[in-house]
Design goal:
With 248 residues, this protein is α+β, with helices and mostly antiparallel strands. Helices cover 22% and strands 25% of the residues.
Length: 248
């Protein structure tokens, strides 16, 4: 009986070591470029590097060149730090730039996959995009939508293929454009319920436009798992959303 207890204890010890090793592998900062995203293998991608040293795939769609991954820099292009605000309740009153990781994760593979979520004030500094790039405007998003056949079809043509990251059934997803939209969702403070939330991860992709839409809101576009439409909206500037940049 004593021998069995020793063997059991040793097995538990090995399991703990294995789990710890897995955690370290997930948190490994050397995962750059290994996000697990399914890109369109029939297309040729370029690359670009941001001010943090992160490498991204890029794709030409018509006459535009877009980032094919969500921005994940922690610095502006002048080298100054962007505030990492993890208490989403605090986002309600922010009027300066901030970012959060999806679900406040610290895991490198998750950050590589989803990028980071930024409030509108971060992009309004004019320093969020890497040099030679800029946050896409409402007009530039409209150009993309028109090139891909209009808002009723464009969403499917830019969503990552499959249901590894998108909720089933990821309707109409072909990623024929190579844009490879990922459902990072958004973060916001919900006034009417008092909840502090990360929302729609796995079901929706939300992107800021550069354009101002009023004192409290700005333009955005979004995609959802159960439609191939690409939809336009306005959102509170205090919301955290994904960023895609376009080449100057």
């Amino acid at each position: 009986m004593k021998t069995k207890k020793i063997i059991f204890s040793f097995c538990v010890f090995l399991m703990i070591l294995t789990l710890n090793a897995c955690d370290k592998a997930v948190d490994d900062p050397n995962l750059n470029g290994k996000s697990g995203i399914t890109f369109n293998s029939s297309l040729t991608y370029g690359t670009m590097i941001d001010q943090d040293g992160n490498t991204y795939k890029t794709i030409q769609i018509g006459n535009q060149t877009w980032m094919a991954e969500n921005l994940r820099t922690t610095k502006y292009n002048d080298g100054s730090a962007i505030a990492n605000v993890t208490d989403i309740e605090s986002w309600k009153t922010l009027t300066t730039g901030a970012y959060a990781n999806v679900n406040n994760t610290s895991k490198a593979d998750s950050i590589l996959l989803f990028g980071r979520l930024y409030n509108w004030y971060a992009l309004n500094t004019g320093k969020l995009a890497p040099v030679g790039w800029h946050v896409a405007t409402y007009t530039e998003w409209n150009t993309l939508i028109a090139y891909l056949g209009g808002e009723n079809l464009a969403g499917g043509k830019i969503k990552e293929l499959g249901t590894t990251h998108w909720k089933a059934d990821n309707k109409g997803a072909t990623n024929e454009s190579g844009f490879t939209a990922i459902p990072a969702g958004y973060c916001s403070y919900i006034d009417w319920t008092g909840q502090k939330n990360f929302e729609s991860t796995g079901t929706g992709a939300y992107f800021w436009n550069k354009d101002n839409a009023g004192s409290q809101s700005a333009s955005s576009v979004y995609l959802y798992y159960n439609t191939e439409k690409m939809m336009r909206s306005t959102s509170y500037k205090t919301t955290g959303m994904s960023i895609r940049c376009i080449k100057d």
